[in-house]
Every structure is written in C-alpha cells, then in structure tokens.
Write a structure and sequence with these properties.
Strand order of the largest sheet: 2-3-7-6-5-8
Strand content: 25-35%
CATH topology of the largest domain: Threonyl-tRNA Synthetase, Chain A, domain 2
Order of helices and strands: EHEEEEEEEHEEHEHEEEEHHEHEEHEEHH
Number of strands: 20
Number of helices: 10
Distance between the termini: 75 Å
Radius of gyration: 33 Å
CATH architecture of the largest domain: 2-Layer Sandwich
Structural class: alpha+beta
CATH class of the largest domain: Alpha Beta
Helix content: 25-40%
Number of domains: 3
CATH superfamily of the largest domain: Threonyl-trna Synthetase, Chain A, domain 2
Largest sheet: 6 strands, antiparallel, barrel
C-alpha cells in the first residue's frame, strides 16, 4: 500500500520514493506504483496531480483498487529510488477551490438544508450541485458569508477520528464510507469526510465568487470561483464593464440601466425597420406588372429577412419564373430569399448554392441562404427565362 504523503502535508512539493512496479499501458504510457507519494490521485471530483518522477513526466495520477498509479511518459526501473516533484501551482489552485467549496457547501447545508450531490473541479472551472433550488439572493448571501470565512483566516485541519468518535460526530458525507474516515474541519463552517489536500487557513483561499447558476435535476448547479480564478474573472469583468460604460457614456455602476435603455431603443428601431421593410417590399411587388415573363432578381440592401421573404413571395405571383431578392454587397456577400410559384425549389437548392458560391435551403416554395458571388454573376445567372437558371 502506497504511503500517502499528501495526506499529512498538502504543501509537500518534492519527495523521494522507491519504484514498486512499472507496466506499459496503451498509447505508450507507463503506470508506475511507488512505496510513497505526494501525488494526489483523481478522486471525489478533483483531478489528479501532475509533475515529474526523475526524468519522467507524470501526466496523470489515479487510483485503481486502492493502488495509486502515476501515468508517465517513460518507464522507470523497478526497485530504483526516484525524486518526485509535483506541479504545485496547479495543486494550490485546486486546494483553494476545494477548500472554498467546503465552506460554501457547509453554509448551504446549515442555512438552507442543502445537500451537496455533485462536485467537479477541473483546471478551468468548479461546479457544485445542490439538491434543492436556491435563488440569486440566497446565493449572494452564501457568497457574502463564505468571503467572511476567508477574511477570518480560520485554521483548516484534517484528521482520522476514532470509530467511536465518528459515530457521535456531525459531519457531511456524499455516500457510505468504509474503513478509516478522514474528516476536514473548518471551525464554524464545515465538517466533511474528504480525502483531498486543502489549504492550511481559510485566508489562503483568497476570495469566493459564485457568478453563475442554473436549475439542475430539481436543484441547482453553481459555478464557483476561488482564489486566483476569482481574481482573474473579476479583472476581466471589470475591463468589459468599463468598456461598456464608456460606450454608453455612463458611470460603471449605472451601466446596466443604460444598456437596458439602449436595448429598448434597439427593439423599437427593429420594429420600425421591419415595418419599413414590409412597406418597401409591398411597393416593389406593386411595381411588377401582372403576367411578367421570366425570372426576377432584386437587389435591396435595406431589406431584412422578413422583407426579402415578403418581396420574393409576392413578386413570384406576378411572373412565370422565379423571384430572387438579395441584400448585401459584393464585398460582404449577400443574403437572399428565392421563391418560385408552383416549382419544387428544394430539389434545386444545392445547385443554386453552388452556382452562387454559397448555400441555401428551405422548402419547395421558398429558399433562403447566403451568396458569395458578385452582383454581376448573380444577375447573369437569373437572366434566363422561366426557370432555366435553376435547371443549369
């Protein structure tokens, strides 16, 4: 059984150990078992440590049947003593976020009766699942109290209580446990069975943020940020908020109201533009004499999707060919709608898209798509009579 050095010292970055076994895995990797290790194996939603063993890179650490296995990029001689070094930057990042999760889960359990039913800690994000819904206001309260725990700089300890003491101890656990149970203790906030490394004091967490949440399986899934992750996202959000406030010519803390007003104005303008687009489409339809022969091709840069559809469908009723309506430019490309009265357009979609250097799709009555061809090429394509252009 490998001695778990990380169990008693989460801050150990280097150590020496003897190689007990080394077997080749698929993909040219090797599975190494040591007599002692500071590498934490993937467990409980937290990824395994990486680093080096001698000249070999440790790409992953996992546990198989109670045996800790180090996945390396090269073989190590059995019986040799090797020097190990973990990637402590990644380890400490996980320690910050895992300890922060303990505080948040402990508070959620105590204040709202929540049970932590899911936890995932990767190198980019941490998510926590609770078994009951929480409001944004309740999450803000949790965040405020969790940050208070950080400011208090409380000790974080881990120990193996005796079997008798364990029976009387009120602690959280995600499932039934067997054998010795390691309990992580944060005074006033949490007692939880956990095998992972944690920071020594809550002040090392640095900060706690819960910016996002969603309904999940009858409860809630929150995105948790602690330490450097919280700081990085806060800086990024501050920069974006400052840029938005500058564009709105408003103070940062009033930016949301300004954006809301701009959104309402934009919605009004969109409605007005749609009405004008419909009116323009109707006017263009009225300009086409009934009984027109051949294909019609309009270039209307001001028409939005609804207007293009309206003009194509209306004008095709006045001709025995097809009606195509394009909006855009040779430089940026064109969006278009194409209608043909009583013609199975869908069967021609691929060849039309190819001919116009773009793509389109839709129904037998109406196609919509994008074209990269020039206006001259488009006009030449639809210059035939009847539906000759689509039959090419």
């Amino acid at each position: 059984m490998t001695e778990k050095l990380y169990d008693s010292d989460a801050y150990m970055t280097s150590f020496s150990a003897r190689v007990l076994s080394c077997t080749e895995d698929e993909g040219g990797r090797f599975s190494v078992v040591l007599d002692r290790t500071a590498f934490f194996p993937e467990s409980g939603g937290q990824g395994g440590d990486t680093g080096r063993l001698g000249e070999a890179a440790v790409l992953h650490t996992g546990e198989d049947g109670g045996e800790i296995r180090h996945s390396t990029d090269r073989a190590l001689p059995v019986g040799a003593t090797v020097e190990g070094e973990i990637d402590f930057s990644a380890r400490f990042d996980r320690m910050q976020n895992h300890t922060g999760e303990h505080i948040v889960s402990g508070l959620a359990h105590r204040l709202f009766g929540c049970t932590n039913v899911g936890f995932h800690l990767s190198d980019s994000e941490t998510t926590v699942d609770f078994d009951r819904p929480l409001t944004r206001g309740e999450l803000d309260r949790l965040e405020e109290l969790a940050c208070e725990a950080v400011y208090r700089d409380l000790p974080v300890t881990a120990r193996y209580p005796s079997e008798q003491e364990l029976r009387t101890l009120d602690y959280r656990s995600k499932g039934s446990l067997h054998g010795a149970v390691r309990v992580v203790h944060i005074p006033d906030y949490d007692d939880c069975a956990c095998c992972a490394p944690h920071v020594r004091r809550t002040g090392e967490i640095g900060g706690v943020s819960m910016p996002d949440f969603m309904r999940y399986k009858g409860g809630v899934r929150i995105r948790l940020l602690c330490g450097a992750r919280a700081a990085r996202e806060a800086r990024a959000c501050y920069r974006e908020l400052s840029a938005a406030a500058q564009l709105c010519r408003l103070p940062r803390l009033s930016c949301a109201d300004g954006v809301r007003r701009l959104s309402e104005t934009a919605e009004t303008l969109r409605a007005e533009n749609a009405a004008l687009s419909r009116a323009l489409a109707d006017a263009r339809v009225a300009s086409v004499p009934a009984g027109t022969h051949g294909n019609l091709c309009f270039f209307e840069p001001l028409l939005e999707e609804g207007g293009r559809r309206r003009l194509a469908l209306g004008a095709c009723e006045r001709t025995d060919g097809v009606c195509a309506v394009f909006s855009g430019s040779d430089r940026e490309g064109y969006r278009f709608c194409l209608a043909g009265h009583g013609l199975p357009l869908r069967g021609y979609a691929d060849r039309i898209g190819t001919a116009l250097n773009g793509r389109c799709g839709g129904s037998d009555e109406l196609l919509s798509g994008r074209a990269g061809a020039s206006r001259k090429t488009i006009e030449r394509y639809f210059a035939g009579t009847g539906f000759d252009a689509a039959r090419e």
